[in-house]
Design brief:
3-stranded antiparallel β-sheet, Ribosomal Protein L9, domain 2, 41% helix, single chain, alpha+beta, Ribosomal Protein L9, domain 1
């Protein structure tokens, strides 16, 4: 069956495309969900208008995403984590952690699915991570994983001057205390 896609369907087509699909797929999935319509002259014209409008919107999103990509690639993303003795993390830094940090820095929302991280980061170091800001704009980020002890070094405690007695006086007092104990016994 020949259909015009009214919305994007992942792995199949984008809005405005005209494709031949299996009859059952069209009747049971695409048409009831209004993701596609039968390819007639009027639906093809409507889909063409909608595709042009979506393309304009996508261009605006891509421009904004380019600005965010430049801002993010300017400096590394620093994530503090608890670290063991040998530089291994207690737990790991995941795509969700990176997405939250990027969202906080960029001022826009980023989902963990947009961060291309094959395996979670489990060691301290610097990593290159790909992020898909929109379907057309991708950015390479530098992620630095550091020990939280490095980030929050405790403030040095103020030194207190202890009131110490000279060594001779302390020895005399100890000897007197021992003598007093012996006399009591």
């Amino acid at each position: 069956m020949r259909v015009v896609f009214l919305d994007d369907v992942d792995g199949v087509a984008r809005a405005g495309e005209i494709k031949n699909v299996a009859d059952g797929y069209a009747r049971n999935f695409l048409l009831p969900r209004k993701l596609a319509a039968a390819a007639t002259t009027s639906t093809m014209q409507q889909a063409d208008k909608r595709a042009k409008a979506l393309a304009k919107e996508q261009d605006k999103l891509d421009e904004a995403a380019q600005a965010v990509a430049v801002k993010l690639s300017a400096s590394p993303i620093v994530i503090a984590a608890k670290v063991g003795e040998q530089g291994r993390l207690f737990g790991s830094v995941t795509a969700t952690d990176i997405a939250e940090e990027v969202s906080a820095r960029a001022g826009s929302t980023l989902e963990h699915r947009q961060v291309a991280l094959a395996t979670p980061i489990k060691e301290v170091g610097t990593y290159e991570v790909a992020v898909s800001l929109t379907r057309n704009v991708k950015a390479q980020l530098t992620v630095q994983v550091k020990s939280d002890a490095e980030e929050e070094a405790p403030a040095p405690k103020p030194t207190r001057k202890a009131k110490a007695k000279p060594v001779e006086e302390a020895e005399v007092e100890e000897a007197q205390a021992e003598d007093a104990e012996e006399e009591e016994a």
